[in-house]
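The pair is quoted verbatim underneath.

:::
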Amino acid sequence: MTPTLVRHHLSHAGPSARVDLWARARDWSEIQERMLVPLYEAVYERLEVGSGTRMLGLGCGSGLALLMAAARGAAITGVEPSSRERLALARQRLLPETWGARARADTRLLDGSPGDAADAETPAYTLVTAFEPVGCLAGDSEGLGELLRGATPLAGHGASVVLAGWGPPERCTTSAVLRATGLADPPQGTGSRRPAHRDDLEEVAERAGLRPDGSGRVACPFGYADVDSAVRGMLSTGLFDTALSATDPAQVEKEVTEALHPYQRPDGTVWMPNVFRYLIARVP
């Protein structure tokens, strides 16, 4: 099987200190993270992830993508540089005290940069992931190139790099919610909302010295039991962190709640169709 590399990224500037970061991480883990399962599955199927895979997850969050790869037999290492709360939840999911005898001894979860995953005694990674989608907020891909440049030396020649991005705004209900609230629209600069461009992922890959080698689109609808769950899930993505840093969190929750009403069904559930894109590139 050809060696492989991929990415994780949905949180950005970080919310106000008034926000309970542990509650936010739990909302991500329990409500929102599963919405990206179709994306993970599509990539793993296409790249034939299995017992021969050594996977490095960049921005691994609370570890669901890693867990799915481990269930396929992959050896996994996760790096989470921005949320200790999410990383703690990943450790609960993946380390031996949770899995017991079924845990793999080569599972590692690290608080730091890709360089912290370097291990001279083991072979190169065959899969490096960066699954958190970029392309919804201006500047949200700026740190991705640096992460990739730090990770590619740890991957083998010909390894795949798979980057994830939001699909066209007309195919993503979440974009309509952002427009309706206006909360993700500061006047200028990083954090302002802007539509994804077709070649965003290719540009990131090429700047990191990688060669694009295929892409795909995946439907990832956001489905919630009720409006309260939808608000908690949406806020956990990091898309509203700029507003949370500048405004009363209660007001942000109110605006998001109102923006979600058009997507509430008669039974109280909330259904938001979205499409995500992934790009496969190769390590030279």
